[in-house]
Amino acid sequence: MSNSPSSEVDIIIAGGGTSGLVIASRLAEADPTLSILVLEAGPPTQEDPAHTQPARYLSHLLPGSKTVRVYEGRKTEELGGRGVVVPCGQCLGGGSSVNFTVYARPAASDFDDWETTYGNPGWGSKDLIPLLKKSETYQAEGSAETHGYSGPLKVSYGGLFTNIGQQFLEVAARYDAKRSLMDDPNGLFKCNAYGVSTWIYISADDGRRSDVPHYYIYNRTYPKLEILTGYLVKRVIFEGTRAVGVEYTPNARFQPDEKQGTRIAKAKRLVLLSAGAFGTPAILERSGIGAPALLKKLEIEPLVDLPGVGENYQDHQVIFAPYLVKDEAETLDGIVRNDPEEVENWSAQWTKDGSGLMAHNGIDAAGKLRPFPDELELIGPQFRERWETYFKDVPDKPVIWCGAVSEYVGDPSTVPKRKYASIGYYVQYPMSTGYVHITSANDVSAAPDFDPRFLHRVEDLVLLRWGYKHSREFARRMPLYCGEYLPSHPQFPEGSQASCSSDGGPVAMDAPLLQYTSEDDQAIDEYSRRAVQTSWHSLGTCAMKPRGQGGVVDSRLNVYGVTGLKVADMSIVPSNVCALSVATRRTLLYCSGRRRESNNHPDAGAGNYGVPYGLTMV
Fold first, then answer.
1. Across the strands, what pairs with 82?
2. 162-196+317-427+456-531 belongs to which homologous superfamily?
3. Is the distance from CB of 443 to CB of 405 less than 8 angstroms?
4. pLDDT in tens, 93-116
5. Distance (Å, rounded) from C-alpha 103 to C-alpha 461?
6. Would you state the torsion angle of the CA atoms of residues 204, 65, 584, 484, taken in this order, to the nearest 10 degrees?
7. Which end of the chain has fewer CB atoms < 10 Å from its terminal CB, N or C?
8. Which of the four pLDDT bands, split at 50, 70 and 90, describes residue 603?
9. What DSSP string describes 122-188?
10. For the purposes of burial, counting CB atoms within 10 Å of the CB of 473, is it exposed (0-12), middle (13-18) or buried (19 or more)?
11. Which helix (H) or strand (E) holds 378?
């Protein structure tokens, strides 16, 4: 790490999150003569237990966390007058260092959509699967052709298979027998089944979180790579329309004693923005790239008319419904509450052999589901057109994710001290899309104008209704179940046969399904509006589309209208994916520099190794 960066380097990377560090590492390894500067807004993470011990992940979302930046959306009628709060990773490693460590990959058709629907050659599944494989060492038993076995990031089952997860799968096999169990839910080509495991970014060797800084940066030596933490990039500097550097400033959260004011770093070859779905469009807008009307309102001189900057915001809309479970349940609640005995016991086991709950995330089993005809009827006519036009003929695209989480997902200080299991469910391809735009030309920390527009489309709302009904049937059949945590469930009308209870017991596998009236459905919808939250999977705000369709970057990740400036993070994704990477609201992104065949390529000015081109989602 450096505290006095060079004033001029070959390449500047704005953002030391997941993709920024992978790119920095690969470029430094491919061409050791390249001088590279990474500017990261948050703190370092090296050997901090909050990052290396997987089970501590919820600590990053608790009040007072210094590893995330929180964005609050507009209060909307669709959410009962509240605004969605989205925590985003702000530390070296970004989402990879604070997320739930879940390993969930998209459908192959998601990648193919980027290539065929949006005209991005080289972004189909045939191109990206080799890059997926390159990034990982898959430590599952057996082998599969879509996985890699020699990459930096370890993928294993973690330190414990909880009895919550075991019971979820037992219910899946017996209650929902029309769907199968599958050994590899992340093979990219199949869905509508439950995973025997949800494999996680944890090393089977030592139980450590397998994040980007520890596996791409901290364990290697790159003499010409400088990483500066605790600094915010304000804007890109241009000479004409060519990017030649950046302005940056100390982040007062981490540099309170540092003299405030703008610094300048120059880039001889390339400026790369990798600040995420919130940070990257903000840098572009402060640099004069965006919708002219917005820029002029903030007294920013427009440089490039790109109205797509900050638009096309997408996320997965999730609910984690909490249930009460018996004392013998294996949950992470004690670790999350920081109970001394729990933390000491599990830490000792983790230190000894990398096993136990400290080497786990509590998410053992899940399914990516497509509705059968009877379930389509249950979902209702509001979803019919969406099914017919988007899902019906694409069998690898699931409609909803449903899985067990062995803990209360949230702030433990707000609920009674006991054990919980949450059954989570989220819409895989929401129709609701939003936006994020800056509100200040100079204040990098100013809250943006942000509206994720959750539940603005009824198609999303009715899927959450189905998700609640389906997941609740799972919970009440699990032997460890002993009722709902009432404050976080629907308030059904008095006398409803679907009413919740805080002192119930499990029902038989063949018990009749709960029946819901239209009033009950309304209660579930009201619950969804007050309970739905981010999945930490924000993307799309600098979409890789044709410029005339609201695109911001082309298929080589060049920003339209300028030279020497690229974007490589989840903001470039043109359409959503059925991937789960519960982090600071984002799916993990891995950009890989491809060596070009010739210096005659239009990007040759960045150097033969300098194109962050291939993107993989893992």
1. 76
2. Glucose Oxidase, domain 3 (3.30.560.10)
3. no
4. 999 999 999 998 999 999 999 999
5. 26
6. 80
7. N
8. very low
9. T-SHHHHHHHHHHTEEE-SSS--TTS-BSSSEEEB--S---HHHHHHHHHHHHTTTTSEEES-TTSS
10. middle
11. helix 373-379
E-state strands within 186-280: 193-195, 225-229, 231-239, 242-250, 263-273
Q: Give yes or no for residue 5 having a pLDDT over 70.
A: no
In percent, how much of the chain has pLDDT > 90?
Answer: 86
Q: Which of 560, 562, 583 is nearest to 570 (CA)?
A: 583
Q: Would you say 614 and 125 are in contact if contact means Cβ atoms under 8 Å apart?
A: no
Q: Which CATH class is domain 8-48+211-314+539-617?
A: alpha beta
Of 2 and 481, the structure prediction assigns the larger pLDDT to 481
Structure tokens belonging to residue 471: 């997941």
Phi-psi region of 192 (alpha: psi -120 to 50; beta: other; left: phi over 0): left
- Summarize the confidence of residues 610-615 as an average pLDDT: 34
Q: Which amino acid is at 279?
A: G
Residue 255, pLDDT score: 84
pLDDT value at residue 140: 83
Please give the backbone phi and psi of residue 11, each rounded to the nearest 5 degrees, phi first. -135, 135
The residue type found at 31 is D
286-290 contacts: CB < 8 A, separation 24 or more?
286/234, 286/235, 286/438, 286/441, 286/442, 286/444, 287/235, 287/236, 287/238, 288/235, 288/238, 289/559, 289/561, 289/562, 290/437
Backbone angles phi, psi at 70, to 5 degrees: -100, 130
Whether residue 537 lies in the annotated active site: yes
Instruction: pLDDT band for 580, please (50, 70, 90 cuts).
Output: low
What angle (nearest 5°) sits at the alpha carbon of residue 122, between those of residues 121 and 124? 95
Catalytic residue among 60, 316, 537, 601: 537
Domain boundaries, the chain: 8-48+211-314+539-617, 162-196+317-427+456-531
Average confidence (pLDDT) over 329-336: 97
Query: Which of 419, 503, 537, 414 has the alpha carbon at shortest distance from 18?
Result: 537
Distance CA 185, CA 326 (A): 29
Residue 63 — pLDDT band, cuts 50, 70, 90? Answer: confident
What tokens were used for 231? Answer: 């600094």
Count the neighbouring beta carbons within 10 Å of the beta carbon of residue 495: 6
- Specify whether the CB–CB gap between 397 and 190 falls below 8 A: no
Enter the tokens of residue 91.
């530390």
